[in-house]
Amino acid sequence: MFLLLWILGGLIGIALLSAMVRAFSRSARTRAEVQEEIRRLLHGGVIDRPPGRGSQVRGRLGQLEITVEVHRDRARPRQSPMWRVLAVGPVPIDRPVEARVAGWQGWIDPWLQIGETLMVPSRVGPEFSLHAERMPSLEHPLVAALRRQGAGLGAGALHARPDLMRAEARFSARPEENRPLFAFLDAMGEISELPYTRSGRKTAEAPRLRIKREAS
Questions:
Q1: Is 208 domain-assigned?
Q2: Which residues span the domain enclosing 153?
Q3: DSSP 3-state helix, strand, coil percentages of the chain (rounded to 5)?
Q4: How are beta strands 128-132 and 64-71 bridged, if at all?
Q5: Is the CB of residue 31 less than 8 Å from the CB of residue 70?
Q6: How far lies 201's CA from each of 90, 117, 156, in Å?
Q7: DSSP conformation class of 178
Q8: What's phi and psi for 101, nearest 5 deg?
Q9: Which of 37, 39, 69, 188 shows a CA-CA span of 20 to 30 A to 30?
Q10: Which positions ≥6 away from 181 have C-beta within 8 Å?
Q11: What does the pLDDT look like over 77-122, one tens digit per residue?
């Protein structure tokens, strides 16, 4: 009887280990597939692996220098792993603002949680909140850019200030469930194309990232 219990425990352990290996392999394949798609969409896109970090995609989106990677935050296990986007370059807004979509937890800029909050009601896509030092309005360019993503938008956050933008979106082992990442990239590209209200200049045209994945 004791031997049978050991054998049963061993079989259960092997089954769990096999399931973990399959899940890890599926996540790795999805990560590579999504990163390759982003690489093709960005100008001069490359995939590299910095020392001590996972693979990341780098390239240009209009005047923005884009970096996309998968990030794990121990303080936010429910959001991890997540896609994290850094877009460095001119952004035609006057002051920092952050949008949190579909109840996304955590802050890209924690200082903005003590600012003013505007709730943006749902149309086709999910509801989101806008946070800034002063009360933003529904005419803010982030509102328009995110609303135009429609049902492709999903849980995540988008932060913008005059010199850069950041975004976070949920990572999924199912390729079709990573569409929100492309929605945030598309919104970043759209915002970067807007006129500069202070100088009158416009940014160079950025490629539109309208990626639609069919459910498998």
A1: no
A2: 2-192
A3: 35, 25, 40
A4: unpaired
A5: yes
A6: 11, 30, 30
A7: G
A8: -105, 135
A9: 188
A10: 34, 38, 68, 83, 85, 156, 167, 169
A11: 888 899 999 999 999 999 999 999 998 988 999 999 999 999 999 8
